[in-house]
TrEMBL record:
Residues 100-255 form the CobW/HypB/UreG nucleotide-binding domain. Residues 18-51 are annotated as: Disordered. This is Hydrogenase maturation factor HypB. PANTHER family: HYDROGENASE MATURATION FACTOR HYPB (PTHR30134:SF2), HYDROGENASE PROTEIN ASSEMBLY PROTEIN, NICKEL CHAPERONE (PTHR30134). It comes from the Bacteria. GO terms for biological process: protein maturation. Pfam families: cobW (PF02492). Residues 32-47 have a biased composition (Basic and acidic residues). Keywords: GTP-binding, Hydrolase, Metal-binding, Nickel, Nucleotide-binding, Plasmid, Zinc. SUPFAM superfamilies: P-loop containing nucleoside triphosphate hydrolases. GO terms for molecular function: GTP binding; GTPase activity; nickel cation binding; zinc ion binding. Belongs to the SIMIBI class G3E GTPase family. HypB/HupM subfamily.
């Protein structure tokens, strides 16, 4: 998990590692590989498996106990902000979704199409996360919807603190939907709760059926998987059933939809999911 690096988390007490002359904090000690042998093992086929220690991840020069402590520090702060966001969304009746995927799976295309198609049914605003540029927020604004761009710099995920600030500026109207497009990668955003009602993982059919098995944390964290770019299926040897079976092995409760953000195929099923989930959420927060 990315938090062990500690880059960009100088506010965290007990900083994770010494800051090198380059200011980035990665010291390389020549000839000292492998202080910690308890976090990986060599399999018979010659592959090396890291993440076998109690922290589930390797960081050079850090003990497993120290990694766990750093992760706890970061994630417990994040979770406190996420809980605050979630309370705010529930009070306001805002239905928030956190879209996660690798870069280029079609998150922005999917959001643009959804906003256009649901213009008369649902008010939608968007928080866009990318390392650099505000291209995606501009794409959203072209639809007439309101959008705020967050650039994370070297960061590989949005966190709940960033989202809380963006929500203050954006002020999504009561009863609306808030789409949060996370930074594109299938690893780090899995660990960070933003206060959303659901994580939605988008996987495109050009990425291969095995991605849920290779990046299980993301598929375990999601409630819905959208398989996008179905219009390309005739040109590929992608097996949709096999991909869905892999995803269900990781997360048996995962719901799945196959769509094309380009042609619109399958999108009505997504809109039905969206409206039903938003309605269920609204009823639940009224009861609570
Ligand atoms: N053929 C096809 N291309 C798509 C589809 N959805 C997105 N794309 C293309 O995939 C590329 C990446 O899309 P984008 O929405 O920027 O992905 P993001 O990085 O996940 O936000 C762009 O060239 C899109 O036009 C789709 O359903 N079918
Ligand atoms: Mg995008």
């Amino acid at each position: 998990m990315c938090t062990v690096c500690g880059c960009g988390t100088s506010a965290i007490e007990g900083h994770t590692h010494e800051v090198g002359d380059d200011g980035h904090g990665h010291h390389h000690h020549d000839g000292h590989h492998g202080d910690d042998h308890d976090d990986h093992h060599h399999a018979e086929d010659g592959s090396v498996h890291y993440g076998k220690g109690i922290a589930g991840v390797h960081a050079p020069g850090m003990s497993q106990e120290r990694i766990i402590q750093v992760e706890k520090d970061i994630l417990s702060k994040n979770d406190a902000y996420a809980a605050e966001n979630r309370r705010h969304f529930e009070r306001q009746g805002v239905f928030a979704l956190n879209f996660v995927s690798s870069p280029g799976s079609g998150k922005t295309s999917l959001l643009v199409r959804t906003i256009k198609d649901l213009k008369d049914r649902l008010s939608i605003s968007v928080i866009e996360g990318d390392q650099q540029t505000s291209n995606d927020a501009a794409r959203i604004r072209e639809t007439g919807a309101r959008a705020i761009q967050i650039n994370t710099g070297k960061g590989c995920h949005l966190d709940a603190h960033m989202v809380g600030h963006a929500v203050e500026d954006l002020a999504p109207e009561p009863g609306s939907a808030l789409f949060i497009e996370n930074v594109g990668n299938l690893v780090c955003p899995a660990a960070f709760d933003l206060g959303e009602a659901h994580k939605v993982v988008v996987l495109s059919v050009t990425e291969g059926e095995d991605k849920p098995l290779k990046y299980p944390d993301m598929f375990a964290a999601a409630d819905l998987m959208i398989l996008n770019k179905a219009d390309l299926l005739p040109h590929l040897d992608f097996n949709t059933g096999f991909c869905i079976a892999n995803a269900l092995r990781v997360n048996p409760r995962l719901q799945t939809l196959t769509v094309s953000a380009r042609t619109g195929e399958g999108m009505e099923a997504f809109y039905a999911w969206l409206e039903a989930s938003a309605a269920r959420r609204a009823i639940r927060s009224k009861v609570a």
